[in-house]
Amino acid sequence: MGNFGSAGSEDVEYFKTLPSGFATIEYGSGNYERALLADLVKVGPGNVLFALEASKSDGPWVVPENYTKYNGLFSYSSGDKNEGGSVTAMAYHATWDATNQTPQRAIDEGIIAQFGSLNPTDGGNTDRYTLEGEYHRADKDSASKIMAYSYYYNMNLWNDFTFFLDDPVHGDQFDQADSRWVQGVKGAQTWFGRLWNFPVENTVGFDLRNDIIHDGLYHTEDREVIGTTRVDDVLETGLGMYVENKAEWLPWFRTVAGFREDVYRMQDSSDLDANSGTVYATAQEPKLCLIFGPWAQTEFYINGGYGFHTNDARGANTTVDPNTGLPVNKADRLPQSQGAEIGVRTLAVPHLQSTLTFFMLDLDSELVFNGDSGTDEATGPSRRIGVEWGNYYTPTKWLTIDADYANSQAHYRDNPAGGDNVPEAASTIISSAITLHDIYDFSTSLRLRYFGPRALTQNDSVESASTTLLYYSLGYKINQTWSIRGDIFNLLNTTAPDISYYYTSRLPGEPAEGVNDYMVHYAEPFTVRLGLTMHF
Fold it and tell me: What is 315-337 written as a DSSP string?
């Protein structure tokens, strides 16, 4: 699956058609407003699908969020699953003021309110403009697909995580500036046939991507630059090539085997010559999946394989810390992963889909959030062991119950002196909902989300609190044209952090070395949103 595919993957496909056009307006707590318009227009042999969205919100924060977002999508598609193609253009723009995590002591001592901010000029802005095209064809003997894309992206983030720890006069706010052009193309060719009279599918494919990046890290005060930490121009190119075989050896046994190799070139032209350079790296990723069954609508599977993730190209070339001037070791270029899972999928219970999986994942290098720099830093090798259990139950056409449970334990494998827990790694997560569909034109659902405590330090001396939130929604179909919907977030108005870290920061008047403390960002309180939709 390539970069960051070690623990999972996501395949997003946009709708090419709509059953009808629609327009939605929404209003809610915290000056929330949203408008969405989408429709399908027949043009020649194909369809033009477009969607336009605008939204704004201030949220519950003492410093209004001033969040403004604009989205647009236009897509032209023609053909069908046997042969066709599409061209899609997307645009996105957003600006906001941010209330970031704050020291718990500042709230406890009354310096700020629960939803207050210690630096009202934190925030950001971002843009993204994408153009992509794809073509596909398939018949009884083979299938082909190719996609090309290009996008421009930029973002500025102003954050202040340590306040007056490094600079007691101007404060520690910094600007992370990133702009990049990305171009890529990927394709796959599959042949359907038989091997020794067994049905097989053989696929070859490639994935080529090129990033032209300009990065800057600046010391700022009220978003004004007062110092430059580092500036980098990065050219990163990656090429992945893979083969895959799917075979059905017996009515109750089939396999999926694959091999992928990725090659990367990471070139960094930094404002500090010692941190400039070019590195090359390769990763080999064999994978094998064994599937047994089905028996009584139940099948078992065993998966295993290798993966990788890229570290920051700057870190792969950095030899001198730009803050201290001290020598540092270069980060691993393509840390690999080794993972395996064993599981069962079943439909044995009527109307219930259930999957139970036990997994283990080893990473050669772990990425951990660093509050001082606001970045993820490469650390030592780690191991995750866990279980996932997913359930989807539809006893009647008007009732759906889903319940998902996940638990994992993450530890370093090199027995570091400070402890072997991976800070901030998720432990127990539960998501469950009960939904009633189309009962006298009403639909309603109640959803629970639970995030269990997790270690915030390597020695597990400090843990986060658990967080349990309830969400409720109610919709009514007035007629074929009009429908209304209401959503309540944090139904019980639970006071709980949705972000927790533990690190050193300094407020005015505190010791120069700072104070270790929980750094928290509280979940939004009881929030109501109402929406009206017109179909046409």
Answer: HHH--B-TTT--B-PPPPSS-EE
Contact in structure between 470 and 477 (CB atoms under 8 Å): no
Cβ neighbours for 507, distance < 8 A, ≥ 6 positions apart: 103, 105, 106, 111, 118, 163, 164, 515
Res. 370: pLDDT tops 60: no
Whose structure tokens read 């906001």? Answer: 96
Neighbour-count burial of 303, counting CB atoms closer than 10 A to its CB (0-12 exposed, 13-18 middle, 19+ buried): middle
Do the Cβ atoms of 268 and 280 come closer than 8 Å? no
Q: Please give the single-letter amino acid code of residue 392.
A: Y
Model confidence, pTM: 0.91
What are the beta bridge partners of residue 429?
406, 451
* DSSP assignment of 180-199: EEEEEEEEEEEEEEEETTEE
- Lowest-pLDDT range of 25-39, 270-284, 373-387, 424-438: 373-387
Superfamily of domain 335-536: TonB-dependent receptor, beta-barrel domain (2.40.170.20)
Q: Measure the CA–CA gap between 278 and 271, rounded to whole angstroms.
A: 15
Q: Residue 525, SS3?
A: coil
Paired with 412 in beta bridges are 382
The residue among 34, 38, 17, 15 whose CA lies nearest residue 26 is 34
For 105, phi then psi, to 5°, come to -65, -30
Distance CA 481, CA 126 (A): 36
For residue range 452-499, list pLDDT tens digits in order: 999 999 999 999 999 999 999 999 999 999 999 999 999 999 999 999
Query: What are residue 22's DSSP bridge partners?
Result: 38, 535
Amino acid at 441: D
Residue with tokens 């995590």: 101
Per-residue tokens: 213: 């990046």
In whole angstroms, what is the distance from residue 101 CA to residue 192 CA? 53
What ranges do the domains of the chain cover?
335-536
Report pLDDT for 379: 80
d(CA 51, CA 37): 6
Query: How far, CA to CA in Å, does 35 sit from each of 26, 313, 484?
Result: 6, 39, 14
Question: Alpha-carbon distance 157 to 215, whole Å?
Answer: 12
Q: Edge to edge, what strands does the sheet with 102-103 contain?
A: 102-103, 515-522, 497-505
**Of 254, 266, 348, which is closest to residue 301 (Cα–Cα)?**
254
Instruction: For residues 188 and 243, give the distance between their C-alpha atoms in angstroms, rounded to a whole number.
Output: 9
Whole-number Cα distances in Å, 262 to 206, 281, 282, 310, 333: 10, 8, 6, 11, 12
Q: Determine how many CB atoms are found less than 10 A away from the CB of residue 332.
A: 18
Between the CA atoms of 373, 375, 380 and 384, what dihedral angle is there, to the nearest 10 degrees? 140
CA distances from 26 to 18, 144, 501 (A): 21, 42, 34
- Retrieve residue 97's tokens: 């003021």
**Which tokens hold the place of 445?**
């659902």
